[in-house]
Amino acid sequence: MSIPTEPRFDVSNPNLRFLEEVSAVTAGVSRLEMCIQCGSCGGSCPPAKDMDHTPRMLFAMVRAGMKDEVLRSNTPWICVSCYHCVVRCPQDVHIADVMYTLKSMAIRAKLYRDSTGPDFSRTFVGMVEHYGRSYEFGLATRHYLKHFPLRMPGMAAMGLGMLSKKRVSMTPRRIKGIDQLRAILDKAKEVEAAS
Ligand code: SF4
Ligand code: SF4
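A: This is the predicted complex of the input protein with iron/sulfur cluster.
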């Protein structure tokens, strides 16, 4: 069965509804208009208890045009892109991609509440550009040292546990073909700047 695609909206149209605006700036398709509010996403979301709104609630707010409230919500910043919800969504809504869209819209509108979130994203992107992959140990260490130094001692046990189970590595490893990846990223930036 072929998956229906959604119409592409002209993002320069000032009369776009918020739902259409979110869809227009999401990479690929969002399928957000297909959401049936079943709640499977929130039910399968590991960090949902820390979110201002579950993904289901947030999408209802997007549909209701509650732009300011949505862009002020901490939900997209708490999302860890685990894709549990994406696998379980009966409507194939591209939930994690929409979370990225909402983060970037919140940054542009300067409506995010947690000022460390955008910095975390920038550090993550910088590491991907440098090494070609995420370097979790360095990312977490840098972020906590910069923003939450007093919490560092409390993180030590978890960090050591992850290191001992080889879930993270102490040192970064650069991928082969980093130049090709950088060329792709440069092109993506060029396309984004032109759009
Ligand atoms: S699981 Fe999918 S259809 Fe259900 S509320 Fe979440 S986004 Fe909507
Ligand atoms: S991708 Fe984000 S919203 Fe979906 S289950 Fe994981 S943390 Fe929750």
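The pocket of iron/sulfur cluster (ligand 1) is lined by residues 35-41, 55-56, 59, 89-91, 93, 95 (CB under 6 Å). Residues 18-109 form one domain.
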